[in-house]
Amino acid sequence: MHKFKVLFLSIVIVLAMQVRGQELLDRIVAIVDDEIILESEVTQMAWMMASQMGIDPTRDEEKFIELRKVAVQNFVTKELLVIQAEKDTIEADERQVDAYLEQQMQNAIQQAGGQEKLEKIFGMTLSQIRRNYREDIEKELRAKAVQDQKLANVTVSRREVKEFFETVKDSIGKINDMVDISHILVEVKPGEKARMEAMERAIEIRKRLLDGGDFEALAKEFSDDPGSAARGGDLGFMSRDDFVREYAEAAYNLQPGEISDIVESQFGFHIIQLIDKRGDKIHTRHILVSIKPTKEDEVAAAEKIKDIYRQLKEGADFNELVLKYSDDMSTKQDRGHLGRFEVDQLRNMAKEFLFALDGVEPGQISEPVRSKYGFHILKLNARESARNIDFEKDYDRIAELALNFKKQKELHKWLEQIRQQVYIEYKDESLN
């Protein structure tokens, strides 16, 4: 079944397109073997690239058309690599899939402004979004694995790096103002008080159901699942694998019409009613009471980041505190390293970081700063002023560019060989 391939390219881009009244069309624009590429996917990816490049698609239509062509080729390339992975029996690491899925889900929730808003955007529960996206992550990782395997032995000599530099140095231009930063993140998480308040709400709702309350009406009034609340909590027929474990275990033990006890999952507290069974599938509806952080939880997170800051000022090791306290799982094992950013890029991504780093010297830390992700302490690893690129001083960076360029050439030749063996049809030739 065709899944959502670009759900999380950018929630912001999806919203921007909705605001502009642009309708995502679902006509097929290309076919690779037995996989289809949709207009909606191409448009979303093109909008994402336009956003990254500072292009306004509504004003620069020609450039946007070119980006759509690039987007189509990106999708075709991925499908070709997945086909090769099938031939080479290369599978995705399940632990890596789980870790990447969790990271992407958290990013999507944060970008949308919360779980409820994300579910509202896509019109489904978080578990359904997660299930739809998992298959696509597996494909992405398989494509990357087969590509990495093919290009693993590609190297560049110093002579090749020098030749590459002489060819492109005029186009590389200057190195802009740069900062290299690490961080410790403390998220605002619901505490036990928030959990108990949610449980008490769930108990009260269940009592009203057992006293004869209308399930559909109560779901519409109280359920925190925007994907199903408007339908009276109705989830339709689904299989066991479509649910989180706790929901499935409770729902499959019910008899038609029966209402479950309070069921706790990662999403909060569920009250489930089984409507019907059909083979391995069940038809259920539920009322979800999510656990929302309280003001006390926010204060607790703020106090925690202040305590970490105090420890650092008293001489504690930054790397040790990253491992002990940081809630950013994607950077925790890399000493909290966020990366190297152009100052202008960081201004667009997280301007509060830029303000926090004002006056901070390399090797020093910032005061605690709040973002949509939680509370941070930033460490400035390095700061570089804008300058012309220099072969010796910037050799590692130039060598990386040269290696990537050589790998792309090798990949292009290899993909052309695969193309000769795979059926590819462009339904819209203007995108070929």
Word description of this protein:
The chain has 432 residues and is α+β, with helices and mostly antiparallel strands. The protein folds into three domains: 11-155 and 411-431, Porin chaperone SurA, peptide-binding domain (Triger factor/SurA peptide-binding fold, Orthogonal Bundle), CATH 1.10.4030; 174-189 and 294-388, Chitinase A, domain 3 (Roll), CATH 3.10.50.40; 192-289, Roll (Chitinase A, domain 3). 52% of the residues lie in helices and 17% in strands. The strands form four sheets. It has a four-stranded antiparallel sheet, with helices on both faces. A hairpin with a 2-residue loop joins strand 1 and strand 2. Helix 2 crosses helix 3, helix 4 packs across helix 6 (126-151) and helix 14 packs across helix 15. The model is unreliable at 1-25 (pLDDT under 50).
| Tally of DSSP helical segments | 16
Second rung of CATH, namely the architecture of the largest domain: Orthogonal Bundle
Give the number of DSSP strands. 13
Query: How would you describe the shape?
Result: globular
Q: Tags for this entry?
A:
432 residues; alpha+beta; Triger factor/SurA peptide-binding fold; Chitinase A, domain 3; 3 domains; 4-stranded antiparallel beta sheet; 52% helix
Give a topology summary:
Elements: H1 11-19, E1 28-32, E2 35-38, H2 39-53, H3 61-87, H4 94-112, H5 115-122, H6 126-151, H7 158-172, E3 174-175, E4 178-186, H8 192-210, H9 215-222, H10 226-229, E5 234-239, H11 245-251, E6 263-265, E7 268-278, E8 281-289, H12 295-313, H13 318-325, E9 337-342, H14 343-349, H15 351-357, E10 369-371, E11 374-384, E12 387-388, H16 395-419, E13 424-426
Antiparallel strand pairs: 1-2, 1-13, 3-12, 4-9, 4-11, 5-8, 6-7, 7-8, 10-11
Helix pairs in contact: 2-3, 3-6, 4-5, 4-6, 7-16, 14-15
